[in-house]
Amino acid sequence: MIDLDDIKRILELQGGDLVIKSIDNLPRQLEQSFKDSYNISFPEDFKTVNRIVVCGQGGSRFPSFIIKELFKEELAVPYIINDDYSLPGFVDNNTLVILSSYSGTTEEVLICGEKAVKKGAKICGITIGGDLKTFLEKNNYPRYVIDPVFNPSGQPRIGFGYFVGGHLGMLFKLGFIKSARQEIEQSISNLSNLIKDFKVDIGKDNNQIKQLATKLYQRYPYYIVSEFLTGIGNSIANQTNETAKSISSFRIIPELNHHFLEGLKFPDKLKEILTFVFFYSNLYSTKIQKRFAITKDVVEQNKISTLWYELKGKNKIEQTFELMAIGSYLSMYLSVLYEQNPKIIPYVDYFKKRLAE
């Protein structure tokens, strides 16, 4: 197994330090994008829509899921994530459709954009360029065109702070989230201190994320989350798949308590590689905290290994940003252990090439 304290070897595997710089710059991605997107001008009738539909895939989708769950109790209108080629039948001129594609070339998003035009929806978008940027500019739709200076890796899942901050800024500007803007800004400011011990130059004896990655090497992780952290379970599973080239899943409490626990008996061989990673928060509701403890007990009764990680942020926004960072560092360290380059996604690229033929 590669030594996670061997920085020279890590840089060799990654072809330089672009991935590490992007991960370390999550606070700057959030700060830049929240500020810039908040300054976008929207027509007044955008603020009176009665529902929002976000169209996105992969690393341009899960940031919306993070926001949806973090602000579930505060969002003023229904907020729906749309991740295929079709728009819901209810989309009309009272619907805001947000087109979300890092590259600006995601065909599902572009097709939904054309359908949204035909339905008379209000449309805006977030991208770094490509066909989506052209579409938004051509039709003079409000848009946040990212200048990704803090994501030199060029990978959406590693630069996803831009999409979390970008979507948040737009939603705040439109008045659909009622939290204090200062709370977001303060949480971003505090993030650097929360994640300082996750960085590559911090030795594994003092680096909890290096330790976690080592324990998950050659394992099948099930990331367990709940309530306001639900969306980040999705993002960590995504990052583990693409960055570490490793299988992973995420599950949500309380939903898994109603069926999944009975599926832990078989097949026997699964127990040899399965590990449940419980991301625990003292800000979960009392009932959910109790469910976490009992679920861990049931999993261990089935002779399946578990890991327990307690978040340290002092409020829900801080813990959300903290777990976002954990997912990026964890999947990067796993990629090192598997001797994989986190910047390349050969099978996704192959699939897209075949699809375009």
From TrEMBL:
GO terms classed as biological process: carbohydrate derivative metabolic process; carbohydrate metabolic process
Pfam family, one: bact-PGI_C
Top-level taxon of origin: Bacteria
All copies of domain SIS, residue ranges: 42-185
Molecular function terms from GO: carbohydrate derivative binding; glucose-6-phosphate isomerase activity; mannose-6-phosphate isomerase activity
Keywords: Isomerase
Family per record: Belongs to the PGI/PMI family.
Protein name: Bifunctional phosphoglucose/phosphomannose isomerase
